[in-house]
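Supplementary Text 2. Reproducibility record for the structural model of the 396-residue chain.

All settings were left at their defaults, and a single model was retained for analysis rather than an ensemble. We include the record here because the model underlies the residue-level annotations in Supplementary Table 4.
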Amino acid sequence: MDLKQFESSGAGRLVRAAEGYWAFVPAAPPRPLDYDEETVLLLSQADAGLSELSGLGRHLPNPHLLISPYVRREAVLSSRIEGTKTTLTELMLGEVDPKAIEQDPNDVAEVRNYVRALEKGLRQLKKLPLSLRLVREIHRELMRGVRGEHATPGEFRRSQNWIGPPGSTPETATFVPPPPNEMTGALAEWERFLNTRNDLPDLVQCALMHEQFEAIHPFLDGNGRVGRLLITLFLVERGRLSQPLLYLSAFFETHRQEYYDRLQAVRAVGDWTGWIRFFLNGVKEVSLEAVLRAGKLMDLRERSRRRLEDHAKALALLDRLFQNPYVTVARAAKILKTTNPTARQAVKKLVEAGVLEETTGRSWGQVFLARPILRAIEQSPIRGARPKRREAASGS
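Retained model, structure tokens:
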């Protein structure tokens, strides 16, 4: 690390490992924090956006129709930050027709694991507090059977990791998190902060929780993905989200370089305010985007349903298309728990209504797509993309 970048800021301390390199041990986030007018305004706007999204989740006729595509989109974008190339289309098509996927199967597996890790975390929140134990369980699910499985899934690291360009070492890395002997205490402090209540606004505490977790980097691999999962789990546990509909990976991926820079600025010069503003702006933008997306999907559902009022099986299949807009006749039969001919009739009705189109051009093994649904799921109004620089990491 460049020691000149790390001023005395109260954000942590530099320690020298036995091997001679320097590492950073984060301190507990400061409390109370000073808020200037810009931060207060952003906090108000982010709170309002989050509340609107949470209210929408409570009043949706079937929120599960939206949760599934939102989770899959988040899995794709969060994994993309770490270098995977799987698209949302490939992920969804692969669930229906695995042979149609030309992408690296390891990439697809990593994205699917992200979905399973989030789903497991949400289930576990019903019986466990957000804690180090829950974090380990999420990580175990995330790393199961994929690249990085060698990196002790579900166990905190016992060796040093670092963040930097390819070929870097702890001596030349951009950032070196705490050595294992210092990490245990930092994790205990993080867990205490995680479970502090009525001390900070929830969104501010969530921002600080995420930054501190990334600074500790407690696993040999998968830290970034676990850290982003924790944002959603924290807001669900605190009751700020009625349904898991807010995911910040789209914002972080769009502003990837600033995301890295803001995290580093906290460690180097104690710029908590800059990071908090960045995080709150992300919540504000993504909440608005999620509300707009939900509205488009629900409008699309109602318009489609009006064309299918006389066909119960087609209506039932329509709802499942909002979870995955790709379908085959065999998959439709399984969804509807009916015979192949009946499922074929339901698919035919959806094609006639303009909801589905056949994509393979074959008379056998046909795959159908609800293209308007896929377009509504994929479309993002988030603006302001900036030049991206892949921050390679050993154990990221």
